[in-house]
Fold each of these.
Amino acid sequence: MLQAEVAGLRVIVTAGGAGIGRAMVESFAAQGAQVFTCDIDGAALEELGRACPQVGREIADVANPDAVAALFDAALGRLGGLDVLINNAGIAGPTAPVEEIAPEDWRRTQAVNLDGLFHCLQQGVPALKAAGGGCIVNLSSAAGVRGYPLRTAYVASKWAVVGITKSLAMELGRFGIRVNALCPGPVEGERIDRVIAAKAAARGIPEAEMRAIMTQDTSLKSFVTAQDIADMALYLASPSGARLSGQALSIDGNIEVLR
């Protein structure tokens, strides 16, 4: 784990019950940050509470602006302010040719990945301004900087995240707020397993073949881990990342093509 100077920082991580979010929550907490997180999965939050009892937790669907408002009321009340906002919540969305995507699946993907980001920014930015500055980390994707067939709903949302990141870096820089996006490639875990299964089914090939294709499409011939992403978030939140803003940082083993 990266050793970063984040002790005492007040941090909100959305969707921290599992996967990348869980790795971020545990990493910041382990290094002395004050952390509050949310998730739509109450069981995951309960398990996190047993592992990290010092972390504040709230069930919330970021697509619901009222739930986000309640989340930030609880988080800011506990933390006493905000230094770092990590917008991690997101869903994979449908895997299908564009003409077969159900409108409700398209809308849900944008509601979580894009509207949810917006709701959290509206609540979090005033708190960061009040603190005299801070750090925002938005989770985009390798699919946020390149095309990805059969994943248009997800791609649309993640390209938007990069655009929002770059715009807010310009808008908020004068307040001492740095804004960056992380663009992971395939991350080992249940979520990418589901994507692989869906892509394999859409192409009519075995899942093992689909995984091999995706692995070979990276220069390092490997997927990344949730801890790889958490380590970059730690770096951005620390003094070492104090001059980084407006960047879409790829953590993907150098993906050469998405297919």
Amino acid sequence: MNRAFSIYLDAVRFIAACLVYLYHSNQRLLVADILPASTYGHSSVIVFFVLSGFVIAYITDTKEKHWATYTASRLSRVYSVAVPALVLTLLLDGIGRQLYPAIYAYPFDQFLVRSVSSLLMLNEIWFVSITSFSNVPYWSICYELWYYVGFGLLMFLPRRLAYWAVAGLLLLLGPKVLLLAPIWAAGVLLYRWQRLHTLPMAVAVVLVVLSSVGIVAFHAYEVEAQVTAVFKGIIGPQWHTQLTFSKFFLSDYLLALLVFANFVGMRQLAPVLGPLLLRVERPVRFLAAHTFTLYLLHQPLFLFWAAVLRGDPSGYGYWLATTGLLIVSVLVVGHFTENKRHALRHWLEAQLRGLGRFFPAEQHELGK
């Protein structure tokens, strides 16, 4: 992956996390006016899925060629933030509810069930949907971790065994996780489809322009709402509700195609924009290093600080003050979570390599 394109992807990742925050903090108890760009929340998760598939395909091709390295990296990446997020969510929700109960329209019961399912990433299997207290965005990591697992099975197990293992995994997870899996797999395809690496520059420019316009038009014309209404009419409101976060999958496929096209074009165009992208590399890398913490903790954090401040939502001051405290909190928490995950990764890899005699050492060549 060229350096300029890597910077671009990090910038996209951070912007997507900010858009998710705007979406969730767009609450009338916090700010009377509708926040700009606050309709891009779910769409940003789709961006994360495509980006995740691409990055995982890249690192298994270039860095994480041993199953123990891959497993340790994925577990440390997720749980270095997920465990603190769960603990902090319980703590912040408990205090915030005492200070300003009206702002909390989220469950705060069944502590054992919610905590265990969150730790095991089983919140969204089959037609179960267990909200991790106020941490609604937690749902996506309960999809993404299992995509890591499925991809790892295909990469590191003998082919026939891998197919059976993935089939068993899909049987465990059910249709909701499966419905969004092609979006994550699109990121893998983006990396592996070699012909896309040699597109003419003119085609790359066209892809970037058309995909960017398409993404804006997708939201301006409320394509998600229109497609979802048609789909709901076909399967009925009950089944539509049962799909929870996967009920938008048809429009999500269209959006994923636009994101895919954007990344294809920018991969070719990024080296041309290299001088500009390299100038912003340092701040982009710094912000990207806190993206996962921002994503996985923003909802319990902004609710807590809103409960502490109990400001006036008639202007933007209350929202801005809450956002400022959230930023400081994310920087502090991120310093002790995702920015310290390497120590956990090294420890996990050492333990897993001790089991190496039971597993193949090198990656299985997926699709070859």
Amino acid sequence: MTTGMRSVSLWSLAAVVLILSGCAGSGQMPHPLVGDWNYAVETPDATYEGTLTFTEGEEGLMGSIVGDGFSEALPLAGITFAESMLECEFSTPDFGRMQISAQVDGDSFSGNLNVVSYGMEAPLTGMRVTSDDE
């Protein structure tokens, strides 16, 4: 009977370990960029506004951008985030390749939008979109 009890105890212990490890894994914090961020780009002609959206996928951080002058969301490529520095790029039909380089500080960021084909940079600022629940 001791062998049977030892077997039950080992199975019980294994079940507890699996449950606890599942709970610990589900509490992982999302990437600090995940969510929606409203942005503004200041140019001599006008201020352009829109939203950057970041999500976590199987292959890492993914994102898209929508805004003034875009008829649809455009995918972000080459997203990197190291030491609070965000860098990524996207392409538009009208202006070609654009690069974002911004320093993220909590729920805000500031940096530049580089319109590569025109050799022009414009200041870029943004704030995380928060829900009314927060």
Amino acid sequence: MHPTRANATPHPVTEQVLRFFRERGGSQYGQEAVTQLEHALQVALLAEQAGASPSLIAAGLLHDLGHLLHNHPDDAPDQGIDDRHEELAGRWLERRFGSAVTEPVRLHVAAKRYLCTVEPEYRQLLSGPSLTSLELQGGTMTPEEVAAFRAHEHSAAAVLLRRWDDAAKIPKLPTPSIEHFARYIDQALASEAGPLL
């Protein structure tokens, strides 16, 4: 059972994340029909419904944080720009969280490439914008890249996160608020004992 946030003071990093989403989460999620915040909340909800750990739910909420940290336009992939948001988010997160949060986030783009390689039918599940970004991100993997991905300690978590990511693009889907999911950020910070800032 997860503790509630009633009468609790949020961690400073949690407050920082909430501020990012409040200030920039209303921007469009690429060329999808949802905002950055709506997409993040849908991923976190799918992770929560699947009974994922607090760290993986937090990773779900934060997986596209890199989109809130850069200044590229929403249609950057259509302009041939790979914003490398997974690396940007990974660098920001690794100074604050442990690997159970940072690595699934850092690997969620690689997980798309991996799934396109080992499950040919998976590509058919991708949205148009996701297919566009796939080519900028390297397309399918070589056998060596597949082996390296599978050997990574957090590859299974990254694949789960990727599948939730792909499903979390439903316009107007009701979800709990960002404050509801903030508890998982607090718990991930407490359990992984990452640096503060």
